[in-house]
Amino acid sequence: MRSKPQVCYAPTSGENDGGFGAGLAVSRAIVGEVARGDPSVALILAMHYCQHAIIARAEHTGSGDWPPALAHRLKDASVRGRALLNAAQVEPGLGSPSYGGLPDTIARRHGDGWRLSGHKVYVTGAPLLSWINVLARTDEEVPRPGLVPREAPGVHIHETWDPVGMRATASQDVVFENVSLDADDAVALQPAHLGLQRDPHVIAWYLNLVASVYDGAARAARDWVVSFGKERKPSVLGGAALATVPSVQEGIGQIELRLAASDWLLRSHAEALDANRAPGTLAAVVKHEVIDNSIAAVEAAIDLAGNHGLARRNPLERHHRNVLCSRIHAPNNGLIRINAARAALGV
């Protein structure tokens, strides 16, 4: 009988590896429920799931990007709940690799393996990770992501993370100083002139799971404001609850409609992707709409709660700070709109 932590750590691993063989629909449902309680924890989990989706995709397509022994080692450790995994891609100079360019993190040949040096920023869950999937380039100008043990000599975490919200993600800087990397731990070799190749299937996982995190935060805000409306009984209403006021009902109705639309988008997209029938551009649309709906829903809740919504003794102001962080995830919604416009205009 499997233990409960397996559901969270490795739902995507196949049954032969001790997992459940689940797809995006199950994974995004788990992330959404966790996010309702703590979106920072949910984001760490979402990034872990995305990395395992990359491994599963490589095995499914037979790309050879992930050595079988390495993939098995990670899946086995995750099933036992002992191996959180995330990527380190963004750099102080480069920014997000989604905008193009090669990383400054460099892997140099050293015997049969590599020595890795560089500086990454916004590594979600950095202090908790067992492994870090590092985007680097070799001194032969061939970029290679490499899997680095978090506790390896030369891996240093710099506590720079100080945002307005999502603070518990601990998305710190990670500096690699001449870190030894086994030859078998270098994955996804490709010529530098091709740039960073991303599988649209895996990108769809990332966009859906990130959106699910902030949808969960918005649902927590919805839960609070509904309870507030039922419990708050201003004297001007003669003992009646705030929830009896038509304008308050309309505001809560607006929140409900936005969250219902987001649920449909997330669930339908995940199910379609698992069935290999999701349009390639749909993931960005889902992320855009769910993020906008999440922010609008929380702001509507603040409008309804007034000063109570901004008081630190109430959780709504925290939900608001958290959901605003949704805007930082690449590609941001502005870029998604530009790409949609260019496709429509043919430019």
From TrEMBL:
- Using the record's annotation, list all stretches that form the Acyl-CoA oxidase/dehydrogenase middle domain: 91-179
Q: Does the keyword Lipid biosynthesis apply?
A: no
Which branch of life, at top level? Bacteria
Task: Note the SUPFAM superfamilies from the entry.
Answer: Acyl-CoA dehydrogenase C-terminal domain-like, Acyl-CoA dehydrogenase NM domain-like
Q: Quote the Pfam families the UniProt record gives.
A: Acyl-CoA_dh_2, Acyl-CoA_dh_M
Q: Which UniProt keywords apply?
A: Flavoprotein, Oxidoreductase
Give start-end ranges for the coiled-coil region(s): none
Q: Can you give the residue ranges of the Acyl-CoA dehydrogenase C-terminal domain?
A: 211-330
According to UniProt, the name of this protein is: Acyl-CoA/acyl-ACP dehydrogenase
The scientific name of the source species is Caballeronia jiangsuensis
